[in-house]
Amino acid sequence: MDGATRFQTLTRIVLPMAVPGIVCAALFGFTLTWNAFIYALTFVCQTANKTAMVGVTADLIRGDIYYSPQRNSIATASVAAKPSDRSPGNAPANLGVSRHPH
Q1: How do residues 53-70 score in pLDDT, each as one tens digit?
Q2: How many CA atoms lie less than 13 Å away from 25 in the CB half-sphere?
Q3: Count of CA atoms in the C-beta half-sphere (13 A) of 98
Q4: Which of 55, 83, 86, 96 could bond to 50 as cystine, CB 3.0-4.6 Å?
Q5: Rounded mean pLDDT of the chain?
Q6: Do residues 12 and 1 make contact, with C-beta atoms less than 8 angstroms apart?
Q7: Per-domain boundaries in the chain
Q8: Which residues fall within 8 angstroms of residue 1, CB to CB, at 6 or more apart?
Q9: Buried b vs exposed e over 24-61: b needs ≥16 C-beta within 10 Å?
């Protein structure tokens, strides 16, 4: 752009071209951080071996007055005990096919 100042060149040319790269770097950074957090949360059992972020988060959750270690077991048992609508002799009611001829 002829006659543009350095600031106008930065805001109208350089930054619009750099936005996709900045967004991509931010997404990769977030994804890698999230994966490291989930990996440590899932596979590290001993408190002494946990990373700082996982240890703080786990301790905050365990310090909550509404936290119950049995809550996950109760939820799992509730879902497992729910009767299934799709037993072998019970086909879905509506398959889009009329059972009665018109």
Answers
A1: 887 777 777 665 555 665
A2: 5
A3: 3
A4: 55
A5: 76
A6: yes
A7: 19-66
A8: 8, 9, 12, 13
A9: eeeeeeeeeeeeeeeebeeeeeeeeebeeebbeeeeee
Amino acid symbol at 96? G
Rounded-to-integer distance, Cα 5 and Cα 2, Å? 9
Residue bearing tokens 């936290």:
67
Measured between its terminal Cα atoms, the distance across the chain in Å is 73
Backbone angles phi, psi at 93, to 5 degrees: -70, -40
The encoded tokens of residue 62 equal 């365990």
More confident residue, 87 or 60: 60
Q: What is the pLDDT of residue 38?
A: 87
